[in-house]
Structures are given as structure tokens and as C-alpha cells.
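[job 4471] stage=fold_predict status=RUNNING
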Amino acid sequence: MTIIYALIIFCLLIFVHELGHFMVAKACGVKVNEFAIGMGPAIFSRQKGETKYSIRIFPIGGYCAMEGEDEDSNEPRALNNQPAWQRACILAAGSVMNFVTCVILLIIIAFWAGTATTTIDEVVADSPAQKAGIVSGDRVVSVDGEEINAWNDLIEAIGYSKNETAEIVVERDGKEETLTAELEYDKEAGRNMIGISPTVEHNALKAIPGGIRNTGAMTVMMYTVLKQLFTGEVSVNELSGPVGIVYATSEAAKSGIMYVIYLAALLSLNLAIINMLPFPALDGGRLLFLVIRLFTGKRVSDETEGKIHFIGICLLFALMIYVTFNDVIKFIIPIF
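[job 4471] inference complete, writing C-alpha cells
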């Protein structure tokens, strides 16, 4: 199942990325010679119109091969003969699709996890809440005069109160009641607790902003890690490749399908961000050359740019080999 999960994640994310390039290229009228998932020899291929569609034996990549992408071409519909704004849209489309995929996956997780409401689900026996008279089904209206609109408001009002008691107004059977609960400090949680848990609401509309917020937080986290990588705070040895991802998939699968979906969201966002780095062969590197050409014209030929991107691909493959070697040492050798 680990291998199946890993292959599904690899193929899905690569497909989505290349599909972004493909759809925008077609929309801009660019000639696409081949749309492939995987690398190496083709195990399936079909020609439809001007484009060949293929599935290749190694599920470690994919490509949308456009006319004039890495070479000079006189074909009017070649990528190198299109306006700069169209080329920029085509190059950015893959990462945009991966970013959108991450948002969608995190929305699914947010819907599955649900949103905590201000209605009480369970009251712990002999807890301050039970002694105060709070019962399951009560909706918390305010704490110490402060209006409660979300469960986090309740955590803030009770958890970090400096008082020994809290005056809690609850709505029960359409009527409001004022109750007083003693506050107990929980050292492990680092805040006051009164022994209540919320009902959880599974609402698709509320899951959307939750998924977007989580994507934003994950993006900030990734850029922080990249910054630490470039400043030396994080070692290159901490990077993981295909072997590390399979290992992570195995660990996630032990906890359930939602953890696998979360890992897929994380990898999708990772793919989006890494591909937009201004490094040769990556989409960000190609965008950088596009900007350079806006100021220098044709001083950098398509052929020269193609050679630089080829060097970039070689460097990326060398990095992947190094990372894979480290993954084998970290994850495979200890098993034996």
C-alpha cells in the first residue's frame, strides 16, 4: 500500500503540474509535441492530432514538450515566437495548478476535521464546568462579559484569564443563564481548563477559508525552511528525495488516509514553490530568462538558453542522486 500511495501521489502531482502547462499552452495556441507522465521508455503512447500522449516507465517526472521550448524554431506557433506575457502564463501555470491542488486538498481535510463550534459537546465528570452547572448542548454566549463567537474565543477568554473564576453566560433551550466556574490551571496544556469539549460542525463553506488559511501558513513555513537552507541553518542532508517521500508516505499511511492527503498537499505546495525558484531548468529559471530578454532582446539566443537549462537539469539530477543516497543511508540501511 505504501508503494501504491506513493505512486498515486507522484503521478497525481506530476500530472496536475504538466496539465497546467498543457492547458494554458493549448489556450494560447502553442504547438505541444508531447504530453508525458513519467520518464524513460514509453509503455503507452497515442498520437492525437499534433500531440503525442504517453505514459513512461519511471514515475519520477513528466513533461509537456512544446515546440520552441529549448531551441530556436521558425514555427509561428512555437513557444519562443509567442508574446512574453503568454510565455509567462504558460511557465507559471504548472506551479499555479499545484498550488490550487494544495488548497483543494487542505479544504478536504478541513471539512473532514470539522470546525469547533461554541456549543458544548461533552462535560468531564467532576470538572469545574460540571460543578458550575454546564451541560451538553449549552451554547456559550459570553465569558466575563466578553462575547464568544468562536471556540478559539472561548479558549482565549478562559484559558488565559488571570481570575480564579469565570462568569459564563450560556444559552439553554432558548434562554440565557449565567453560571460561575472555577478555573484550574493545566501545566501540560499551559492554560486554564474547565473540562468541556465542543461539538464539531462539518460545513463545506466554512472549510474553504480554513483550507486557504492552512495553505498560507504552510507556504510561510516552506519559505522559512528555504531561507534556513540558504543561510546554513538547515543542512542539505535534511533534504529528502523519492526514497524519503516513500518513507514519509509509509508513516502517514499508518495514521490514516487523511494524513496521506495532507502529505500530498505538502508535496504539491513544495513542487509549486521549488519550481518557481530562479534556477535553470525550473519554471522560475525560465521566467528569469524571459525577464532578462525583455531588457536585452535576443542577445541570449534560444539555443544558449537551452544549453543553460540543460546544465541546470544535470545539476538537479546530481542533487537528486545525492539526496537519494542520503535517504538510503537514513531510511533503508537501518532496516537491515
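[job 4471] summary: The two ends are 21 Å apart (CA to CA).
[job 4471] exit 0
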